């Protein structure tokens, strides 16, 4: 059927994949970091304290003092192409788009900051995507990461008159392809080191202990990933949790305390890997690679290495392509 001459343009139907990661400030300076932290720390999924109690604290001491410190951390890892997380996320989307071809439009968005999830969903819908897979790139499910990304996507959909059909990527913490990609990445990184680590510390982003007590599966997912990775590598691993914030009790053991304690146990050569991060970011490049090194060496260690995340390496893209294609079954041809 040929539409009338005055009919609005109709794009060809397509399938979309929206990769989602946490987010990053627009610049490594206090003003941009303050805006980013205000959005991030106002999320009820991230901070579950009632807003009437939390917002005065956030708008007071936290947003007054923390942005300058955080901006210094970001400045140490900021590259010519800006935020490492933003640059790697864009590279992942481009590489996956090349593999999928013209039938699938692959884009990326951030839960906090830019590119924003609502903006990218609207752009994908305008480009003809009648079916969209929302893909939070968090291998281990947590309400403060996976759920809030999906929440934000569905909130954007609630404003659309003509919604696309939606699927969401489930956690893949124990997927054989993910574990195999981690194993290959760790082995390649270890082979390139000038020393042989006596221990490998597997560091996941920390969460308040309260999240576990309330039934969040994150802690169990992290532990299973570490166990499966250790079995694949054929060696014992030390599991820890980084990025503590505030006075509440967090998941333990804490990565900084583990690193500080290892030299006293006779372990002076260490490698750290962060399998919960799909892309290197300030938590891996500054918190682990810089401050983690300082902590370990300051405690008497001699050799330290922070291994890279999967990022946009061929092994990572192949693994993500397989995961996404599985979730697109029935929408995209298996060939």
In short:
The protein has helices spanning 30-40, 51-77, 84-100, 117-126, 143-157, 176-191, 209-213, 218-233, 255-261, 282-298, 314-327; strands spanning 14-23, 104-112, 129-136, 165-168, 199-205, 238-242, 269-273, 303-306.
Largest beta-sheet characterization: 4 strands, parallel
Total discrete domains: 2
Assign the CATH topology of the largest domain: Rossmann fold
Overall 3D form: globular
How many beta-strand runs?
Answer: 8
* Count, helices: 11
First-last Cα distance? 30 Å
Task: Please state roughly what percent of the residues sit in beta strands, choosing from under 5%, 5-15%, 15-25%, 25-35%, 35-45% or over 45%.
Answer: 15-25%
> Over all CA atoms, what is the radius of gyration?
21 Å
What is the annotated CATH architecture of the largest domain?
A: 3-Layer(aba) Sandwich
Q: List the helices and strands in order.
A: EHHHEHEHEHEHHEHEHEH
Strand order of the largest sheet: 2-1-3-4
* CATH top-level class of the largest domain: Alpha Beta
Helical coverage, percent range: 40-55%
């Amino acid at each position: 059927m040929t539409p009338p001459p005055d009919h609005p343009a109709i794009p060809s139907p397509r399938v979309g994949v929206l990769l989602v990661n946490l987010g990053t400030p627009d610049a490594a300076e206090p003003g941009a970091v303050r805006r980013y932290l205000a959005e991030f720390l106002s999320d009820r999924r991230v901070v579950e304290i009632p807003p009437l109690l939390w917002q005065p604290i956030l708008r007071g001491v936290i947003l007054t003092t923390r942005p300058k410190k955080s901006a210094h951390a970001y400045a140490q890892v900021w590259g010519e192409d800006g935020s490492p997380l933003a640059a790697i996320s864009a590279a992942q989307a481009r590489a996956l788009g090349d593999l999928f071809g013209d039938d699938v439009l692959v884009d990326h968005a951030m839960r906090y900051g830019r590119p924003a999830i609502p903006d990218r969903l609207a752009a994908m819908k305008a480009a003809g995507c009648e079916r969209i897979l929302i893909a939070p790139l968090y291998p281990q499910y947590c309400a403060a990461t996976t759920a809030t990304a999906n929440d934000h996507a569905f909130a954007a959909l609630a404003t659309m008159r003509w919604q696309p059909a939606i699927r969401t990527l489930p956690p893949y913490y124990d997927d054989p392809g993910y574990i195999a990609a981690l194993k290959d990445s760790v082995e390649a990184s270890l082979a390139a080191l000038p020393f042989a680590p006596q221990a490998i510390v597997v560091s996941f982003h920390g969460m308040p202990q309260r999240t576990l007590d309330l039934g969040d599966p994150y802690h169990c997912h992290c532990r299973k990933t570490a166990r499966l990775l250790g079995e694949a590598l054929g060696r014992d691993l030390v599991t820890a949790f980084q990025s503590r914030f505030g006075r509440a009790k967090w998941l333990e053991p804490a990565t900084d305390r583990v690193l500080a304690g290892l030299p006293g146990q006779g372990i002076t050569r260490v490698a750290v890997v962060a399998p919960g991060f799909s892309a290197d970011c300030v938590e891996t490049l500054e918190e682990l690679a810089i401050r983690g090194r300082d902590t370990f060496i300051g405690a008497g260690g001699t050799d330290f290495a922070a291994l890279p995340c999967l990022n946009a390496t061929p092994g990572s893209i192949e693994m993500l392509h397989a995961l996404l294609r599985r979730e697109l079954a029935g929408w995209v041809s298996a060939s």
